Amino acid sequence: MDTSTNQNGQREAPPSTDVNPNEAVLPPYDPNTPIGVEHVKMGYYCRICFLFYSNEDKAKKTHCSSQAHYDKLQKHLEKEQKKKMKTTA
Ligand SMILES: [Zn+2]
Known about the structure:
Helix content: 25-40%
Organism: Ameca splendens
Keywords: Metal-binding, Nucleus, Zinc, Zinc-finger
Protein name: Matrin-type domain-containing protein
Main location: nucleus
Strand content: 5-15%
Bound molecules: zinc ion
Largest sheet: 3 strands, antiparallel
InterPro entries: CIZ1, Matrin/U1-C_Znf_C2H2
């Protein structure tokens, strides 16, 4: 029995050529580059770090450029990635 093709005669592409789960996530940490600013919601609350800021500049520039935020964001994205892999598998 030939199992290399599916019913449509199309080869199934390996799912992980484009997305390497190990580098899924973030570019290298750069203290001058705010990252994950989309996670800072109204009132400048970072839902990644559970931190509240009253000042947009501080929240988005200072906080999102901090190492602590970076680490938490990376963990958050890894978690999301795992969730995604589970639901699609
Ligand atoms: Zn944060």
